[in-house]
Amino acid sequence: MNILQINSSARSNGSESTRLADAIVARLGAAAPGASVTRRDLAAQPHPVIDEATLQALFTPAAQRNAEQAARVALDDALIAQVQAADAIVIGSPMYNFGITVQLKSWFDAIARANVTFRYTENGPVGLLTGKKVYVALARGGMHRDAARDAQVPHLKAFLSFVGLDDVQFIYAEGMGMGPEAVARAQAQADADINAVLV
């Protein structure tokens, strides 16, 4: 089994979403001895955001790209290759201002590639990253689950499905900004949910 872990918190240390992602990866690894784990910390290794130069590089045919354009596209190619090689993907995703982090958005932008990770058909888009299990560890300061203000989970579901990642399990840790007792409850519940899901 090849496991890909994506940590998208702006914090390299002390992130609850990363703690939960680590716990999920540990359980997956224990169930599959010899599993290979690739970790990408998007705070320690930030991926460049899309700008005009990036768009020009992406829309220039490969044979016509200059060295700078080829190097920029190669950064995205490397992330795509990691996803393609993974059997299981674990994403640590804290909620920032009701949505995903800019770090995760940049990763999404990198792996969304027409005719590589999705394609358009007469019946609409079809995701090409099929046959993979995805676990998303969510950390929130407040209580947002199933609330209209939660733009994070709908975004995650929509994007992951768009590229063919339809088998997604969410683990929630909510109330992380509501005091020590709330944090303890959230962590205990999230840990219990991991144990229940990864039997």
From TrEMBL:
Residues given in the record as FMN binding sites: 9, 15-17, 95-98
Cofactor, how bound (note): Binds 1 FMN per subunit.
Cofactor: FMN
Flavodoxin-like fold domain: residues covered: 1-196
Domain of life the protein comes from: Bacteria
EC number: 1.6.5.-, 1.7.1.17
InterPro entries: Flavodoxin_fold, Flavoprotein-like_sf, FMN-dep_NADH:Q_OxRdtase_AzoR1, NADH:quinone_OxRdtase_FMN_depd
Gene3D superfamilies registered for this protein in UniProt: 3.40.50.360
Keyword annotations: Flavoprotein, FMN, NAD, Oxidoreductase
Keyword Signal: no
Catalytic reaction(s) noted: N,N-dimethyl-1,4-phenylenediamine + anthranilate + 2 NAD(+) = 2-(4-dimethylaminophenyl)diazenylbenzoate + 2 NADH + 2 H(+); 2 a quinone + NADH + H(+) = 2 a 1,4-benzosemiquinone + NAD(+)
Keyword DNA damage: no
SUPFAM superfamilies: Flavoproteins (SSF52218)
Family: Belongs to the azoreductase type 1 family.
Oligomer status and interactors: Homodimer.
Function: Quinone reductase that provides resistance to thiol-specific stress caused by electrophilic quinones.
UniProt name for this protein: FMN dependent NADH:quinone oxidoreductase
Source organism: Janthinobacterium fluminis
Gene (UniProt): azoR
